[in-house]
Amino acid sequence: MSNYAIADRLSHAFELGPIRPPSEAYSLLIRATRNCPWNKCQFCPIYKGRKFELRPVAEIMKDIEAVKAISDGIKELAWKMGHGNRVNEVGAMLYNQPQYGQCVAHVAQWLGAGGRTAFLQDANTLIMRTHELLKVIIFLRKTFPGLNRVTTYGRSHTASRRSLTELKELKNAGLDRIHIGLETGYDPLLAYMEKGCTAKNHIEGGKKIKEAGISLCEYVMPGLGGKKMSQEHARETARVLNEIDPDYIRLRSFHAPPTIPLWTKVQNGDFQLQTEDELVKEIAVLIENLQVTSRLKSDHTLNLLMEIKGKMPEDKEKCLDIIDRYLSLPDEERLNFKFGRRTGHYYKLADLSDSYKHDKVEQTIKRLRAQGSSVEEMILRLKNSSI
Fold it and tell me: Is residue 3 over pLDDT 70?
């Protein structure tokens, strides 16, 4: 193949949405819908001011073909450069050359990670007409037969309204997992946050997905209840999760940047934010009340204790022990860890015993205080910059 042919393939483009789950960091992103059909949640800033649109199936298929052209171009370039099937080496090179554009960089990263998973964007692909979503999944699988996982976002309210037959058709076509933002199982909090669903919707939608044989990942938002509804939020969320028994429960700690609609209520005192220590205590209540066989994950950068993870119920005590160890630390040590986590020095509690890292964090805290700066304010700014 000529250099021109390779360049032509690498010139293709396709549409990319704004987000994907942390676990889909290296998945191929295919934008099946634009933005969010609900778009009223008080805690979410992502799609505000943007209109929801169902993309035509032909348009989505054209994007998939564009990905195939770029993928073929990268593979051909790998052979031409003497790397053979080692596309990850060429992928790394292309990823760092901005002249190729975002689409080439994305496909290069995907191929470099193995090219085995795909995620259908945006916020609720499940809202597509079932026969149209089936066409997209089947075409994606046909174009990339090496895929071993195809996943998407969905809303509990939408899933509860899909028939079991429809969900089974999606499973048989090759939809392996649905990610759902459960956030909370407490009805008054769901209403306060304008989530647009109820605990009953969560349970019905989740159980139906499981019954269809599709892997289910539920996202929980510790801290969403603030100081007022913390305990009810934790206990009722555990109750709903116990009813569903999803394959995965993922923690995504609530954070309130000024860009979210809820910020007005934070400012006027109607919603009181919890401290990180209070949030950790709330997570303990959630875990204590869980009676599931799910895998618990803490894989979002906003989470303080990333090591709270494991298979339930076997690892429940291990998770609670991590929380106990953190809460039993002296005040200054907890502050040292919180600041060290947000500055990237620490990942897990055991990192506190690294004297070099510990001293470096401690010196930075002392310097901030000497300058009259608030360490807690700096932690807040670091969290704002991480999302």
Answer: no
Structure tokens at 315: 């690892």
* Mean pLDDT for the stretch of residues 25-34: 97
* φ and ψ at residue 343, rounded to 5 degrees: -95, 0
Tokens coding 70: 């770029």
Give every CB contact of residue 376 below 8 A, 6+ residues apart in sequence. Answer: none
pTM of the model: 0.94
Q: Which residues 6+ apart lie within 8 Å of 272 measured at CB?
A: 226, 227, 228, 266
In angstroms, rounded to a whole number, what is the distance separating the alpha carbons of residues 225 and 266?
Answer: 12
Residues 201-224 have pLDDT tens digits of: 999 999 999 999 999 999 999 999
| 8 Å CB contact between 134 and 169 | yes
Q: What is the mean pLDDT of residues 27-53?
A: 97
Q: What gap in Å lies between CA 52 and CA 34, rounded to an integer?
A: 6
Q: Which amino acid is at 134?
A: L
Q: Which residues face 296 on adjacent strands?
A: 249, 310
Distance CA 179, CA 133 (A): 16
Q: Going by C-beta distance under 8 Å and a sequence separation of 6 or more, which residues neighbour residue 67?
A: 12, 14, 28, 30, 103, 107, 143
pLDDT at position 4 is: 63
DSSP per position, 263-326: HHHHHTTSS-PPPHHHHHHHHHHHHHH----PEEE--STT-S-TT--EETTTTHHHHHHHHHHH
What is the predicted pLDDT for the residue at 87? 79
From CA 129, how far away is CA 151, in angstroms rounded? 17
CA distances from 187 to 157, 294, 317, 318 (A): 14, 23, 28, 30
Element (H, E) at 183: strand 177-183
- What does the DSSP assignment read for 31-83? E-EES-SS---TT--TTTT---EEPPHHHHHHHHHHHHHHHHHHHHHHHHTT-
Name the CA dihedral angle for 257, 259, 261, 262, rounded to a multiple of 10 degrees: 10
Supply 20's token pair. 């994907």
DSSP 97: -
